[in-house]
Design a protein that fits this description.
By secondary structure, this protein is of the alpha/beta class. The chain has one domain (about 5-245): Vaccinia Virus protein VP39 (Rossmann fold, 3-Layer(aba) Sandwich). The protein is about 45% helix and about 20% strand. It contains nine helices and nine strands. Helix 4 (about 75-80) links the parallel strand 3 and strand 4 (about 85-90). Helix 2 packs antiparallel against helix 7 (about 175-195) and helix 7 packs antiparallel against helix 8 (about 195-210). The chain is globular and about 45 Å long.
Length: about 240
Amino acid sequence: MADPETVSFGYEDVAPAEKTARVGAVFSSVAKSYDRMNDAMSVGLHRLWKDQFVHRVKPREGEDILDMAGGTGDIAFRMAPSGARITVADINQDMLDVGLERAAQRGIDGLVWSCQNAETLAFPGKTFDAYTIAFGIRNVTDIPRALAEAHRVLKYGGRFFCLEFSTTTWPGFAEAYDLYSHKVVPRIGQAIAGDADSYRYLIESIRRFPDMPRFAAMIREAGFVQVKAEPILGGLVAIHSGWKV
């Protein structure tokens, strides 16, 4: 059983401060190859998942949206045409630097880029109409604290959306994906990014993340209502949502 004073880093249990530092090192290591790796690992499916996610968010002109853990800009770029005012926040400046470079290449301006810790956001309460986080919540050291911060910075009537890996319930597929993720993904990471260990951690972090019902309960405990989980590929990935009222 894990020590109550430790948190998970992949399959290890470490001190909270150590996890924060080690996660930071992982994402600094993979920042420049992160998007190519996402394509390789998911066979491009992550693009469809993100499209579906933004469709659920329904960003609108004039809204203020915080995209947390949005470093490389994938979600923000999809929301930008809506006319919403988007703040891209990430704890890792290397990831933000990649996002800034990609935005310049695409001619996307008007986004605000901010280095922020999801557990201790610098924004005043009731600032944003929507809070999004895609494939980032499982890397947060204190997830309940980050959810509480999401609730705090949202306006009343604001909406919370999270896209994250979960646990697929499809028989056969779960076993095949488990084999693929543990045996193949680190090799892809070594081939593309020269870093097998970071991708081994990312896969292990998926395995340690709460399943859909448990994570939904955590969102409710943070104060959100009308909490829903929309499974994709039987729950391999899920879109979680809730409202602040």
